[in-house]
Design goal:
Elements (H helix, E strand, L loop, with lengths): L1 H29 L25 H8 L7 H15 L7 H17 L2
Length: 111
């Protein structure tokens, strides 16, 4: 009679331990373990808002890069900003659209 109870408690303990381990891995995965910092990059607030048609200067400003940035730098900055601002993770879809547009403009501009 006690054996089924002990077996059930053991299975429940294993299940809860597995659930805990999975959550720890998910949290560790979401922490920006691969964050790349750009030397001299500082976050600045853009006071005037967005232009109606995005320019190369504005695209570089959104991604925190210069107009002379390489495609690899554009790719890394885009990825980091999208991780932080993705609509599925609670970010703004408007900002995600602007970040994507900035990436497209700088990727096409950079050789």
């Amino acid at each position: 009679m006690a054996t089924p109870i002990i077996v059930g408690a053991a299975i429940a303990g294993i299940a809860y331990t597995g659930r805990f381990v999975m959550r720890v891995f998910q949290r560790a995965k979401s922490k920006q373990l691969f964050e790349v910092t750009t030397p001299g990059f500082t976050v600045e607030t853009i006071e005037e808002g967005f232009e109606s048609k995005m320019s190369v200067d504005e695209a570089a400003n959104i991604l925190g890069l210069t107009k002379e940035s390489t495609k690899e730098e554009v790719k890394i900055r885009h990825k980091l900003l999208m991780i932080k601002n993705h609509p599925d993770k609670g970010g703004s879809s408007y900002l995600a659209t602007k970040i994507n547009e900035a990436r497209n403009i700088l990727s096409n501009k950079v050789h």
